[in-house]
Design goal:
By secondary structure, this protein is mainly α. The protein is built from seven helices and six strands; from the N terminus they run H-E-E-E-E-E-H-E-H-H-H-H-H. Strands 1-4 form a two-stranded antiparallel sheet. The chain has a two-stranded antiparallel sheet with strand order 2-3.
């Protein structure tokens, strides 16, 4: 029911909301459970981030923490949090990247299926990007209203956000700037939870931990 300008406004609004939590709020917050059902829309379709039951605050540059109890929603949890219980602002960045791909595709990451392969939404988006066909991720309902350059940039930024290693992911400040700028973007690395058909060459498996969580995630 939402056209592309509305969805792009939602994407940008979510990014600015997370940036506020990470940087501008009096209590700097890591949300830890960013997902589609926790993004509410007002009458003007402006996004509001909700449900802070799992949120944790941090001070200054102390942005990384560890827990023995991993909580959150599969499909949005970053690999370092799912495997080691380590969460940070980059965990929220990962969840945001998943959200962006879902908004563009119109399908949930965990429920995504494709007749040509068994990859999840992240893997599908990655394959299309490597083949230069990222626009193929766009929902058919958006074709009439989309701005191709905005769609491609949004997908590219999302892939930067879902990279396996936290240090490779951009900050939300960089994400907000990249979404509205027209400059060149860095090339993303292989996303988390992606094996691919050529997993025997290990290029798509940066670590044993990723391989383990990929199998766990698939089940």
């Amino acid at each position: 029911m939402l056209n592309w300008p509305q969805r792009f406004n939602i994407i940008h609004g979510i990014a600015r909301g997370i940036l506020y939590l990470h940087q501008d709020s009096r209590l700097q917050i890591i949300h830890r459970d960013l997902k589609a059902s926790n993004i509410l829309l007002d009458t003007d379709m402006n996004p509001k981030i909700s449900d802070f039951g799992l949120a944790r605050n941090f001070v200054g540059h102390d942005t990384t923490n560890k827990t023995k109890k991993v909580v959150g929603t599969h499909g949005y949890i970053s690999p370092e949090y799912a495997v080691h219980g380590c969460f940070s602002i980059k965990s929220d960045v990962f969840s945001f990247g998943v959200l962006v791909l879902e908004i563009i595709c119109g399908k949930r990451n965990r429920e995504f299926s494709h007749g040509g392969h068994t990859d999840n939404l992240l893997g599908h988006a990655w394959k299309l990007h490597k083949e230069g066909r990222s626009i193929g991720l766009l929902s058919a309902s958006l074709q009439a209203s989309c701005v191709v350059s905005e769609v491609l940039r949004s997908i590219h930024v999302a892939l930067l956000c879902v990279q396996h290693r936290p240090e490779d992911r951009p900050t939300m400040w960089s994400v907000v700037l990249m979404l509205v700028s027209e400059g060149p973007l860095p090339e993303p690395k292989t996303p988390a939870f992606f094996i691919g058909e050529s997993c025997s060459d290990h290029e798509s498996l940066p670590s044993v931990d990723e391989h383990a969580i990929t199998l766990l995630y698939a089940r």
